[in-house]
């Protein structure tokens, strides 16, 4: 179309030189059509709107519908418009085909496509490319709608029984919910007096207000919390299988934290060093022990493997900060000498420790750690989980 105006000007000059009135009329008509088409397309492009609706969080294996709504806020129709959505390869079952449609004045059109969440991760949907034109197709306007939508796919969460880990192991901290020790400086509430309670525990102020004897309840001084140390250094896993091993390690981490928080009602935290899919930087990611599962799943969805070492230092630093009696679980692909020494150190400090090794086989050096009272579990894939 870039040669249309010069061509029309040449025709207009010939028509005026030869005094051909009918040709002058045709040229003026074509010029008017061209100008009208430009104005029509520009007006339509400034009044088209695109809205994307979806649930921006999902678990692996779910099919998530995405609704796109196109609307024309203008007073004139849009003869044709095409929509092309940019989607990550991991989320689409088939390439997204460009949709062509028309919009009446103040009208709207909606259509839906599905996301297939095969792989955990942090993704971005869009931007969408819109192309608007006039009825003759003389002028086209292409727009990139700057509305990329974040989409998070959580890792799979399996029941703990499928992991083959006994519920009375160190992985669920203390099997009895009754505290072994209490801290008299930390009052967590009051309860009714029962025969055998020490008179020192009587809360005289609360008893006077309620006209009955009430005793103080203290917070336990032994911790019932789980810290999961996840090893995402690729060189700690089998060389040719490190990607599958790390993905399985993430599944183990999500399953353990879900069991501890949801089923056992304990506090759980996570610490790891990994590449953040959002920033692209290698960072130390720490979620302090708590009773909220979603923050941990958010981190597990974003993490990517990185190179280097230092898992033993990470384990020692953050495990050593926990209160006495806490549970520390190391999820790794190899228990090196440094990691084994750190686990034994944390055990001597009064923590319950365990190790989960994600690899097809369990090396003899790893088995020897169990002789010192450190439970060691071997996990590789879902078939192995059911057999353990």
Can you tell me about this structure?
The chain has 388 residues and is an alpha/beta fold. It is 29% helix and 32% strand. It has nine helices and 19 strands. The protein has helices at residues 4-18, 21-47, 204-210, 242-263, 294-302, 311-319, 337-348, 364-367, 382-387, and strands at 48-53, 57-59, 63-72, 78-85, 99-103, 108-116, 121-125, 128-133, 140-145, 149-154, 182-192, 214-220, 225-230, 267-276, 282-290, 303-304, 327-332, 352-358, 376-379. The strands form five sheets. Strands 13, 14, 15, 16, 17, 18 and 19 form a seven-stranded mixed β-sheet that branches. A four-stranded antiparallel β-sheet has the order 5-4-8-9, covered by helices on one side. Strands 1-3-6 form a three-stranded antiparallel β-sheet. Strand 17, helix 7 and strand 18 form a beta-alpha-beta unit. The protein starts with a helix and ends with a helix.
How would you summarize what this structure contains?
This protein is an alpha/beta fold and about 400 residues long. Helix content is about 30%, strand content about 30%. Residues about 165-180 have low confidence and may be disordered.
Radius of gyration: 33 Å
- Per DSSP E runs of 2 or more residues, the count of β-strands stands at 19
The quaternary state of the protein chains shown equals single chain
Q: Approximately how much helix is present in the residues?
A: 25-40%
Structural class: alpha/beta
Proportion of residues in β-strands: 25-35%
What best-fitting shape do the alpha-carbon axes yield?
elongated
Number of helices: 9
**Secondary-structure element series:** HHEEEEEEEEEEEHEEHEEHEHEHEHEH
